[in-house]
Structures are given as C-alpha cells and as structure tokens.
Specification:
The chain is mainly beta. It is built from 2 helices and 9 strands.
C-alpha cells in the first residue's frame, strides 16, 4: 500500500514539473485487477508541438512496447502513441553486474501525453512470456473524470 502511495506521489510530481508538449497529461495506474485512469490534467503548451501526429498503428511494434490509441468523442483516431511497456522494469544493475535483467511488475503507474481532443484510449499491451505477462487490451475513458 505504501509503495502505491509513493508511486502515485512520484508520478504526480512528474505531472506538475515536466516540460509540456501535449494538451493533456494522463496518469494511469495498474495492478492485478487491471489498468485505470488515475488523473487527467489539462495543460497549456510551452512550445510548439514538433512531433507529427501518428494515426496508423505500425506493423512491427517491438514486444517491449505498448500501443496507446487515443480516440476523440466520435470514436475517430486522434493520435497513436508507442511507449515502453509500463509493466516491465529493469532490475538494479548492481545486483546483476554487467548482465542487466528485466522484471514484470504486478503494479505501478505511468504518465502519458494525450491530444486535447482525447475522449478515450485503447491500451494494447503485448504478451511477454519471459516475464509471465499476458497480452492485455484496455479501453479507458478520460472525460468522465472532469
């Protein structure tokens, strides 16, 4: 329980201090029961957005990555993000010397940038047999939190 509180506090600090590139910052949390939207924060842009908006899912997404498909209120794809799988972490290097390893997490949190017209997000997490993580797909709604 204390670890979850600390994780949420750390992610909250990231939400409030990061350089802003998106119109929404979304704090997700996950545990054995699934993925939930924890908090949505509207932001103003500090600088012009330089990345191009992706609206098609690439065919060759590495297993270590997750896909976030942001949809607007009409269900149209507003943006697609490819991010590191939040369920995977690296074990501390000092424990394993020069052979870093990965671990599958049973709970945690992460922050994602979203377009300002995002109404929902479909999160696609790939299977990682080596880490005992199954493939998962979650549809979450953002605007119900306003």
């Amino acid at each position: 329980m204390m670890r979850r509180v600390i994780t949420c506090l750390l992610c909250g600090c990231v939400l409030s201090t990061s350089a802003v590139q998106a119109d929404l910052r979304v704090l997700f949390r996950f545990d054995e029961t699934g993925v939930q939207v924890h908090k949505v924060i509207s932001t103003t842009r500090d600088r012009a957005r330089t990345d191009s908006l992706r609206t098609e899912v690439p065919d060759d997404i590495p297993a270590a990555m997750a896909t976030l498909i942001w949809r607007d209120e009409n269900g149209a794809i507003a943006h697609i993000s490819i991010v590191p799988d939040p369920r995977v972490s690296h074990s501390p290097e000092h424990m394993y010397g020069t052979s870093p390893s990965q671990v599958g997490l049973s709970g945690g949190a992460w922050v994602a940038d979203a377009p300002d017209n995002a109404y929902s997000v479909v999160i696609e997490l790939q299977e990682r047999v080596d880490l005992a993580l199954s493939a998962e797909t979650w549809t979450l709604y953002l605007r119900t939190l306003d």
